[in-house]
Design brief:
single chain, 177 residues, mainly beta, three-stranded mixed β-sheet
Length: 177
Amino acid sequence: PGVFMEYTYNYIENFSAVAGIRTDYHNLYGWLVNPRLHLKYNLREESVLRLSGGRGFRVANIFPENATTLASSRTVIIQEKLLPEIAWNYGISLMHLFNLFNKEILFTTDFFRTEFTNQVIVDMDKAVNEVSFYNLTGKSYSNSAQVELDFELIAGLNIRVAYKWNDVKTNYNGSML
């Protein structure tokens, strides 16, 4: 069972905030509390800035999530009791609508970061004939940035051009990889 509460504040022109909190009872891990905050500010009529942040959790299902690895004849080693994955994520996004050659173009750029406080590590580099599952010791993070342009080239044909950059690192046996 769980409870979710949310409060929306939008009494100031051009600004809104949504604060939420979710509390779940897990049969193995007890009560888990996850707060969340979303902020939106209209810089101008055609420009929107968004900020968001919060905490999330999930319980890894290592066998269905790694079915192809398990079919590789590797010995499966679960080194310890696996804890739920818990992460904090936050980000910023900017959207701007402008005209170019009589076409409306939507420009969007965003950056998001996720920092794990716990993660189930699937380690296939420890030994060639093994796959080890264990809890994170050290750091694990993901940075993601994206820039995109959306426009209608001709009636009924929308074009989206985007570039995405990911920087994802996890601590494996004392090394950030």
